[in-house]
Design a protein that fits this description.
The protein has 15 helices and twelve strands. The chain is of the alpha/beta class. The strands form three sheets. It has a four-stranded parallel β-sheet with strand order 2-1-3-4, sandwiched between helices. Strands 6-5-7-8 form a four-stranded parallel β-sheet, with helices on both faces. It starts with a helix and ends with a helix. It binds (~{Z})-2-methylbut-2-enedioic acid (CIZ).
């Protein structure tokens, strides 16, 4: 079957919008109506009048699209459960809130709606430091990614309490300075651009530390012609497509988000055809979680 042609036909017939995260496989990025980071995707879904939105990305991204577009049918082709988002446990967050009653809670968008409902504000990797600095408390409970929390700690005078103690993205844990130094030896003129989910020694060695959207902007604007990229490998597709005259090298060939890569053109076809994988969020949770997302928009 020509899945691409079938997806195009179904999309038109069902007035559906296809969204792809920057970490999706190239074929999915190419067939999507919009490719971006989780926040950009959720905002995009709110701007259009399609009744159905198919989110090709991690589960928390589809949930966020649903939270911001409760009247739309939101489908996810595969469950794509983000292991980092799953590390943020409601019980741990409640315990931290009890221990630091004066602290505000800022949660990375890579978290469930259930835990977002307990937060004062959400953040992305693009705005984490700004959001934390905007909180009216001296202490901020932050999670689930510890490296992003450490990145913020370098950019704020507030005290960051990490919840959980050691939350991490297993894909970004793959980057290490030994391997990066080898890639740098092969490409001595390349700039190193890292994501804030990378370990601190990688962040410290980088020419720039940015979110996926920030990396795309940085690569476009920099005078450099070569870049070593320390984030999930899917971003290279967009970087190469948008900058055909520049060269991009992965800082680690194995930096793959296996959950996001479960989504294929075949599973996208099946989701659209059978309207499978619908996302629902209980009304009370949705109402509380949306408040934390709106706080981020206001900042
Ligand atoms: O917010 C996102 O989409 C993620 C997970 C990363 C980023 O830097 O864009």
């Amino acid at each position: 079957m020509d899945y691409i042609a079938e997806i195009e036909r179904l999309k038109r017939g069902k007035n559906a919008l296809i969204l792809s995260h920057n970490y999706q496989i190239g074929e999915i990025q190419d067939i999507a109506d919009f490719v971006g980071d989780s926040l950009g995707l959720a905002k995009r879904a709110a701007e259009v009048d399609n009744e159905t939105v198919v989110m090709c990305g991690a589960d928390f991204m589809a949930e966020m699209v649903k939270l911001l577009n409760p009247e739309k049918k939101v489908l996810i082709p595969e469950k794509a459960i983000c292991p980092m988002a799953a590390q943020m446990k409601k019980a741990n967050l409640l315990a931290a809130k009890e221990k630091h009653p004066e602290a505000k809670v800022v949660l990375y968008v890579n978290s469930s709606a259930e835990t977002k409902a307990l937060a004062d504000c959400c953040c992305t990797s693009a705005n984490a430091a700004d959001v934390v600095n905007a909180m009216d408390s001296e202490t901020v409970i932050f999670g689930p990614d510890k490296n992003l929390g450490l990145y913020v700690q370098k950019r704020t005078k507030k005290k960051i309490v990490h919840v959980p103690d050691d939350g991490y993205c297993y894909t970004h844990r793959k980057f290490n300075m030994n391997e990066i130094a080898e890639v740098q030896r092969e490409h001595p003129n390349a700039e190193l651009v890292a994501h804030p989910e990378c370990a601190m020694d990688v962040q410290d060695a980088a020419d720039a530390v940015r979110s996926t959207g920030g990396i795309l902007k940085y690569a476009k604007e920099s005078a450099a012609q070569e870049f070593i990229i320390a984030t999930e490998i899917g971003l290279l597709h967009r970087l190469e497509k948008e900058n055909p005259e520049k060269k991009f090298y992965p800082a680690c060939d194995e930096a793959v988000c296996l959950q996001q890569k479960e989504i294929t053109v075949e599973s996208l076809y099946r989701a659209l055809n059978g309207e499978r994988g619908e996302i629902t969020v209980p009304e009370k949770t949705a109402k509380e979680a949306v408040r934390a997302i709106e706080c981020m928009f206001e900042i």
